[in-house]
Amino acid sequence: MAEYIGQRIAARRKSRRMTQADLARESHVSLVMVKSVERGVRTPSPVLLEALASALGVDASRLDPAYTGTQHKVHSALPAISAAIAGYDFPLDPPGRPFAEVAAAVSVATGWRLAAQYGHIATSASALLTDALAHLHATSGRSRAEAARLVVDAARAADAVAYKYGAYDLSARLIDVMRWAADQTGDPDVVNTAAYVHAETFMAARAHRAGQAALERVLGTVSGPVSERAAAVQGALHMRTAVVAARAGNSAAAQTHLRAAERLAQGVPEGVYLGTAFGQSSVRIHEVAVAVSLGQDHIGRALDLVRGWEPGSEIPAERRSGFYVELGRAQLWSGRPDAAFESLKVARRLAPQHVREHPWAREDVVTIRRIKRAEADSLNAFADWIGAV
User: Fold this and answer.
1) Residue 112: is its pLDDT beyond 70?
2) How many domains does the chain contain in total?
3) What's the domain range around 99?
4) Which residues pair with 359 in a beta bridge?
């Protein structure tokens, strides 16, 4: 089977007039890895297969007929994730793994979340939640806050999967677990981070006015930042409130929150704080998101913001991918479908699982295909990959 998959990859690569070095660069893997896969020496993992398929513009199942896909993997895992939090607020079994081992696994899952590796999270989330909750119920004293933080991070990783794949009821329950555990950390920054994630519930319901009000109520209780981390958490809250306000059509409020985020970012280097990226580049990305969310009358502003600028590798892959999806929409609305398609391809290279489940990406590919009557093979392949045909 490894030899067959390698032959399929090589054939597809050659049909696209790509060298092995081109494929390695586009899929963000080593040239040695590409060569070993094409020779059949190595069977690609699901993550590697998806990366290669994304670079080649095909669905991974076209390269490996036995591949069931991330979507199938995720939906198969959702019932177990739901069961893991069914009795989250009372003890069931003792922890099955040492605390340090669970903490390391949750840290890895956080990295997967930031890189939009939802398939990896899905297969491990139920065990992580079960073990993290068991440690919280078995812990007392000073260590309890640390155990509660573990539950927050595990629930957030699982929520990323549920929310991205449209399981909004499960997402809301996971966020309830997050907020319940956050309250037990005694850390206002963790509580505010849970409020940041809670905004997903309002966005899923398209209840943007309510979401804006809920976030502003949290911000109204926050005192001035006393640390770099606190400034980053508060800045992230302002960024998210700006986007929610924009989707509610409240341009003035959106701009007010963006300016607040900008002020906080001036003293905070770009980085990941309690699982959320924040800094001046993140604020600019959200400025673009706000402009696009406000509609076509604001597209000029979005394009002005990105002229001569692009996010660097210090920004997590999921956020950079989202930026290019939003940029693509702005370019499409400005009458530049070719540029929009290029942006979508960049988004896919950065985080294919994120783009494949992004409704804007799917909608915009449909529009681009309608505009581009002389359809290019690469555009058709992209549309097939994202499920737009």
Assistant:
1) yes
2) 4
3) 69-186
4) none
